[in-house]
Amino acid sequence: MATAMGLLTLETLLVQRVTLASRLEARPIATSSAPHSPFNVGKVHVITLADDPTRTAICPLAASVYSQGLVLGVLGWNYSDHFFDGTSCGPPCQANRGKDIRIGQQKKLHWLHHYFEHHPNLHDDDLVLFTDAWDVIVNGDTATLASIFLKQTRGQRGVIFNGEPSCGDSFGIANPYGDKLRSKRWPIRLERSQNVRYASGHDMCYA
Fold it and tell me: Does Signal appear among the keywords (predicted)?
């Protein structure tokens, strides 16, 4: 299965906060000049990662998805350190019982990678909306997801990562972790055929 940035399948839509119409006004991303076949969206999946079964804040998200005829897919439930097929990536997939935000972010990436590569109900033409679990509802018509996505990608496969109108907190946070992120140069490549370009951590929100 084709991957972008070595991790996420190209038919995937990734958004971390979801108000469908207003949040997805990201600037279209120019991809390689190689010809692509048109992308006809298949099934839409809405998934999240939530490993703490004691938090009921996931219920409004699940209800908002279910009210539109979809079922919320939950990865990592009940502090699971094993994927749905019984395999595990070891320590990076450990249960985040200490609620360490960095462990949680790492776990998301490993679970998403495994989901895209191995989930039996995911097909090459499907569209995946990944969202946070505790502070989100799907506030819009999910039937418009495909058209919004294709508008942003000019009818092609692609990835929209963090569809919020503002930059994520990590590169702006005022602590040693944020300082470390801002001090680095980060490689950016959305397709394997693209040349890698680099962005300073200070410019990451505008890259």
Answer: yes
